[in-house]
Design a protein that fits this description.
The chain is α/β, with parallel strands linked by helices. The protein contains nine helices and seven strands, in the order E-H-H-H-H-H-E-H-E-H-E-H-E-E-E-H. The chain folds into two domains: 164 residues, HAD superfamily/HAD-like (Rossmann fold), CATH 3.40.50.1000; 78 residues, DNA polymerase, domain 1, CATH 1.10.150.240. The chain is 43% helix and 11% strand.
């Protein structure tokens, strides 16, 4: 194939719909285990998703609403680390027991990329262990060229650092890569790195301002499962609910 040489996938909300039924559940299990009485409901967590990174969300919540118990400034960093470590264990457990299925079309598109020699990588704000659990356990039959996690960069999305690192790691020109994202923060990060972006929306991101995206669909779609719906395209595009490599290549490079 000419043109398309690499696809960079976000993880949470793109590969697995992790936020509502994964990370949020794991956070609440953690708060309960540590003796806190508050819980993050679906609406509250939606607001917190505007803050990139799990540790950063907890810190933001602590500073704005509090944990219901006094947390001394000198104890804050260590507490956040302990909470996040415990939360990661709970989240990985949810992955390993199969509680979080892959989103439609993800494995299909990745397999096609492997077959045709299109490089694929993961660029996520999640920590490395959580990213590896999905990449090398749930998707163990997929060959990833790299997995980049939030621990590997100094700044989280919407900063473009992780996508700049992906370009550097892949050795591919940014014009030859396409990003699959789901959120405004991820979209802005990819665009700031000079990348083309396909957005697949989900419960938490469908009402966000995604106007900078090159293409927006509800999901990538599977022939024998859920098919996607076209929300926005910047040019004429025939979409039957299944977004494949040929369509991506034609859309961006013809």
């Amino acid at each position: 194939m000419s043109g398309l040489k690499g696809i960079f996938f976000d993880q949470d909300g793109v590969i697995i719909d992790t936020e509502k039924d994964g990370h949020r559940v794991a956070f609440n299990q953690t708060f309960k285990s540590f003796g806190y009485s508050f819980q993050w409901d679906v609406g509250e967590y939606h607001k917190l998703l505007q803050v990139a990174g799990g540790k950063e969300r907890m810190r933001h919540y602590l500073h704005t609403k509090g944990f219901g118990k006094v947390v001394k400034p000198e104890e804050e960093d260590e507490l956040i680390k302990k909470l996040h470590k415990y939360k990661t264990e709970r989240f990985i457990e949810l992955i390993e027991i199969g509680a979080l299925p892959l989103r439609p079309g993800i494995k299909r598109l990745m397999k096609d990329a492997n077959k045709t020699g299109v490089l694929i990588g993961i660029c996520t704000t999640s920590n490395e262990r959580a990213a590896n659990a999905i990449a090398y356990k749930i998707l163990k039959d997929i060959n990833f060229n790299f997995v980049l996690a939030g621990d590997m960069v100094n700044k989280k999305k919407p900063d473009p650092e992780i996508y700049n690192l992906a370009i550097q790691t892949s050795g591919i020109n940014c014009d030859d890569c396409v990003v699959i994202e789901d959120s405004r923060n991820g979209l802005l990060a990819a665009k700031a790195a000079g990348l083309r972006v396909v957005v697949t929306t989900n419960y938490y991101t469908e009402k966000e301002d995604l106007s900078e995206a090159d293409l927006i669909v509800t999901c990538l779609g599977d022939p024998d499962g859920e098919r996607g719906k076209l929300i926005k395209s910047q040019k004429q595009f025939e979409y039957d609910g299944i977004l494949d490599l040929e369509q991506i290549n034609k859309y961006f490079y013809s």
